From TrEMBL:
<comment type="subunit">
    <text>Homodimer.</text>
</comment>
<dbReference type="InterPro" id="IPR016040">
    <property type="entry name" value="NAD(P)-bd_dom"/>
</dbReference>
<dbReference type="GO" id="GO:0003978">
    <property type="term" value="F:UDP-glucose 4-epimerase activity"/>
</dbReference>
<dbReference type="InterPro" id="IPR036291">
    <property type="entry name" value="NAD(P)-bd_dom_sf"/>
</dbReference>
<feature type="domain" description="NAD(P)-binding">
    <location>
        <begin position="4"/>
        <end position="323"/>
    </location>
</feature>
<keyword id="KW-0520">NAD</keyword>
<dbReference type="InterPro" id="IPR005886">
    <property type="entry name" value="UDP_G4E"/>
</dbReference>
<dbReference type="Pfam" id="PF16363">
    <property type="entry name" value="GDP_Man_Dehyd"/>
</dbReference>
<protein>
    <recommendedName>
        <fullName>UDP-glucose 4-epimerase</fullName>
        <ecNumber>5.1.3.2</ecNumber>
    </recommendedName>
</protein>
<comment type="similarity">
    <text>Belongs to the NAD(P)-dependent epimerase/dehydratase family.</text>
</comment>
<keyword id="KW-0119">Carbohydrate metabolism</keyword>
<keyword id="KW-0413">Isomerase</keyword>
<comment type="pathway">
    <text>Carbohydrate metabolism; galactose metabolism.</text>
</comment>
Length: 338
């Protein structure tokens, strides 16, 4: 089976390509390197021990899809390619609506045109907004999004669901994942944020490495145990394996329509200070941080109930927060040594 991975050179995409290879799939990658680097392709190839089929292109352009589908027989798509920084989306909402939603609509149009009927969509726990109760289950209400980024994920899920409803044989799964961190234990691939990181862990590792000033902790007055925001941090390799499980479930479906969505997390909420303490325990290094005002678009706390994904996908996490932070630091040390 040949699987197209959009954003295949990105953080989650690159790890998923490796896990697809480990599971016996053939992959085709497409990326425009707007938030990734070409060296990720080399890292993937070194890990799997063979070249990958790769296209550099913008999936917001019809010509990119026509070239892909005319040259490759694609059996399914895992769609990662999107802008993802919550803060930037608040400042530049039109950039996010244009890229995240328009490209997804074009992809679905081209999938219909070329008869590609299997899709795993990279969604997010941001679709839940600030949940009324925790942990979040798939039956939890989808709240008004706290950011334009979160809204793009809500809208794309709705578009995909409507496409399934209107198409006789279309199968799709949305994976609502929580906060991916870590790196492959080979340290050949990992997170390569361009510019100032928008996410906690890469900023933390860059700070400890001396590349940034003290880590900014946005808010210490939240109604949580220590006043800092709580998230569900999942190792990126565990997250990558969830996509393989989702793809296998899609491919088992009989003829007809199929759509479902799953939480992908650890089931444990960790505060920003929890992460700092766990990093210090994992590495023996001190994290300097400073408290800043709350960041617009951030919710107080969100973490997953993963019962549905455990039972239906047959998937569960294997790695701990300490594992993830240790791997993230090993990746950062490798980057320093370049």
């Amino acid at each position: 089976m040949k699987i197209l991975v959009t954003g295949g050179a990105g953080f989650i995409g690159s790890h998923t390509v490796v896990e697809l290879h480990n599971a016996g799939f053939e992959t085709v990658l497409v990326d425009n390197f707007s938030n990734s680097e070409k060296e990720a392709i080399t890292g993937i190839e070194t890990i799997i021990g063979k070249p990958v089929t790769f296209y550099e292109g913008d999936i917001g352009q019809a010509a990119t899809w026509d070239k892909l589908f005319s040259e490759q027989k694609i059996d399914g798509i895992i769609h990662f390619a999107a802008f993802k920084a919550v803060g930037e989306s608040v400042a530049k909402p039109l950039k996010y609506y244009s890229n995240n939603i328009s490209a997804t609509v074009l992809m679905l149009e081209k999938m219909e045109e070329y008869g590609v009927n299997n899709l795993v969509f990279s969604s997010s726990c941001t679709v839940y907004g600030q949940p009324d109760t925790l942990p979040v289950t798939e039956s939890s209400a989808v709240q008004p999004a706290a950011s334009p980024y979160g809204n793009t994920k809500q809208v794309c899920e709705e578009i995909i669901r409507d496409t399934v409803t209107s198409s006789a044989g279309f199968h799709a799964i949305s994976l609502r994942y929580f906060n991916p961190i870590g790196a492959h234990d080979s340290v050949l691939i990992g997170e390569l944020p361009l510019g100032v990181p928008a996410n906690l862990v890469p900023f933390l590792t860059q700070s400890v490495a001396g590349l940034r000033g003290p880590l900014a902790v946005f808010g210490d007055d939240y109604p949580t145990a220590d006043g800092t925001a709580v998230r569900d941090y999942i190792h990126v390799v565990d997250l990558a394996k969830a996509h393989v499980s989702a793809l296998n479930l899609l491919l088992k479906q009989p003829e007809g329509q199929y759509y479902d969505f799953f939480n992908i997390g650890t089931g444990t909420g960790s505060s920003v200070l929890d992460v700092i303490n766990a990093f210090e325990a994992a590495t023996g290094l001190k994290v300097d941080y400073s408290i800043k005002p709350r960041r617009e678009g951030d919710v107080v706390a969100v973490y997953a109930d993963c019962t549905k994904s455990n039972e239906i996908l047959g998937w569960k996490t294997e790695k701990t927060l300490t594992d993830a932070l240790g791997d993230a630091w090993n990746w950062q040390k490798k980057l320093i040594g370049k």
